[in-house]
Amino acid sequence: MSEPENHTLRVLVEFRNEFREFKAEIVRELAEIKAVVANLTQSLAGEMAANRYINGGVDRRLADIERRLSEPSR
Q1: What is the pLDDT of residues 8-63, one digit of tens each?
Q2: CA-to-CA distance for 67 and 62, rounded, in angstroms?
Q3: Per-residue model confidence (pLDDT) at position 52
Q4: Could you give the CA distance from residue 48 to residue 56 in angstroms, rounded to a whole number?
Q5: What 3 state SS string does the chain have?
Q6: Nearest 5°: phi and psi at 32?
Q7: How far apart are CA 11 and CA 1, in angstroms?
Q8: Distance in angstroms (rounded) separating the CA atoms of residues 15 and 9
Q9: Whole-model pTM?
């Protein structure tokens, strides 16, 4: 049987190696998550710009209707 010190050292080395692998995996996954968030942010910005454009047209038409309704009848 091996000495307890050697066994402990092997376990610690194994733990350190597994932790490095875990850390590398987390870094990769965070990079993927950041990319997804960036894409979602860009998509949302596009949607917001489109909605502003559409709402601007509706606002102009409503303003025209309100203006015609507020004019005195002839």
Answers
A1: 999 999 999 999 999 999 999 999 999 999 999 999 999 999 988 888 888 888 88
A2: 8
A3: 87
A4: 12
A5: CCCHHHHHHHHHHHHHHHHHHHHHHHHHHHHHHHHHHHHHHHHHHHHHHHHHHHHHHHHHHHHHHHHHHHCCCC
A6: -65, -45
A7: 15
A8: 10
A9: 0.57
How far apart are alpha carbons 22 and 16 in whole angstroms? 10
**What would the two tokens of residue 6 be?**
């050697």
- Look up residue 12 and give its two tokens: 């610690």
> Rounded to 10 degrees, what is the CA torsion of 53, 57, 59, 65?
180
Token pair, residue 65, equals: 């209707």
Residue reference for tokens 């733990």: 15
Which tokens in the block code for residue 28?
């990769």
| Tokens describing residue 11 | 């376990």
